[in-house]
Amino acid sequence: MDHRQDTSIAVELALLLALATLWGGSYTFIKLGVATIPPMTLIAARTTIAGLLLLAVMWARGIRIPTDAVTWQRFAFQAVLNSVIPWTLIAWGERHVDAALATILNSAGPIFTFLLTAIVTRHEATTPRKLLGVIAGMAGILLIVGVDALHDIGSGLVAEAAIVAATICYACAAIFGRSFKGLDPMAPAAGSLLAGAAVLIPASFVFEQPWTLSPSLASVLALLALALFSTAAAFAIYFRLIQTLGSVGTTAQAYLRVPIGVAISVAFLGETLSRTAWLGLACVVLGVAAMTIPARRPASVKSS
Fold first, then answer.
1. Alpha-carbon distance 69 to 46, whole Å?
2. Dihedrals φ, ψ of 61, to 5°?
3. Beta strands in the chain (DSSP E)
4. Phi and psi torsions of 219, nearest 5°
5. Is-contact 262 26, C-beta < 8 A?
6. What pLDDT digit, counting tens, does each position of 55-84 carry?
7. In terms of Cα–Cα distance, which of 73, 75, 38, 91 is closest to 205?
C-alpha cells in the first residue's frame, strides 16, 4: 500500500513539473509566434484552438457545459481578466522584451493576488511570511523594471509595464474564479476560452486583418504548441492536480515555472539576463515561494 501511495505521489509531482514546464515554455512559444503573427491574432487563434479542444474533452467525459446566459456572462468576464487582456498584453510585450524577462515579471501573480485580497476581499489571513514574500517579489519587479526606468522611457519599459498589468489581471481573475464553485473545473476553462475567442476573433479581423498575413512555419508551429500544450494540455493537468494535490499544492508550479521558463528561453532563444535581472529573478522566486509553499504544521502527538 505504501509503495502504491509513493508511486501515486511521484506521478502527481511529475505532473506538477510538467505543468510548470508547459506554462514556463509558453513565453518562448509566444516570442516565436509574435515574430510574424500579430499579438491579437495569435491570442485569438490560441483561445479558439484550446477552447474547442477542451470542449471536445468535456464531451468525451460526458460533462455538459452550462447554456444559461448568466453563466456565460460570468465566463465572458473571466475571459476578459484571464485571457483577452493579459494574453494580448503579454504577446504585445514580447515583441519588445525577451521571453525570460516576461516569464519573471508575469510570475508574480500570487503576490498581486495576495495584495488584492488583503485590500479588497480580505478573505485570507496576513502572515509575516506572506508579507516577506510580497516585499521580496515587489523588490524583484522593481529591480527589473526600475533599471530601465532610470535609462529612458522607451518601448521596453512600456512593454514591461504591460506584462506587469497582465499579471494584475491574472490576480483579479484568480479572485473572481472562486465564484465558479459548483461547476466542473473544465467548464469555466472551456467557457472562458470560447468567450475570449468570441471577442478576439472579430477584434483581430478589424485591427490586424489576419487574412493578409504570411506567417513563418516557426510561428505557426509555436502557435499550435502554445494552444495544444501550454493551454489545453496544461489546463487538463491543472484541473487534475486541483483534485489530487489541492489548490495550495498546485500553486507550487508558480515558483517552479520561473526558473524553468527562463532556462527554456535562454536555451532555445539564446537570450541572456543582466546581473540585475538575475537578482530580480531570485527575489521573485523567493517571494512567490513564500506566498505559495504551505507552512508546516506541528506534528501532533499520538497517544498510546
1. 24
2. -85, 0
3. none
4. -70, -40
5. no
6. 999 999 999 899 999 999 999 998 998 889
7. 38
Q: Are 138 and 287 in contact (CB under 8 A)?
A: yes
> Per the structure block, which three cell numbers stand in for 245?
494535490
Cβ contact 260:20 at 8 Å: yes
For the residues 274-292, what does the mean pLDDT come to?
Answer: 80
- 279-282: long-range contacts, CB 8 A cutoff, minimum separation 24: 279/140, 279/143, 280/104, 280/139, 280/140, 280/141, 280/143, 280/144, 281/104, 281/140, 282/140
SS (H, E, C) 38-55: CHHHHHHHHHHHHHHHHH
Cα end-to-end distance, the chain, whole Å: 24
Alpha carbon separation from 134 to 66, 141, 286 (Å, rounded) = 37, 11, 10
- Rounded-to-integer distance, Cα 194 and Cα 63, Å: 16
Pinpoint the alpha helices (H) of 62-181: 69-79, 85-93, 99-105, 109-116, 128-151, 155-176
Q: At residue 91, what are phi and psi to the nearest 5 degrees? A: -65, -40
Query: What backbone torsions phi and psi does residue 149 show, to the nearest 5 degrees?
Result: -65, -30
- Which cell goes with 257? 515555472
Highest mean pLDDT among 12-16, 187-191, 209-213: 209-213
Could you count the other beta carbons within 10 Å of the beta carbon of residue 63?
Answer: 15
Residue 137 has pLDDT above 60, yes or no: yes
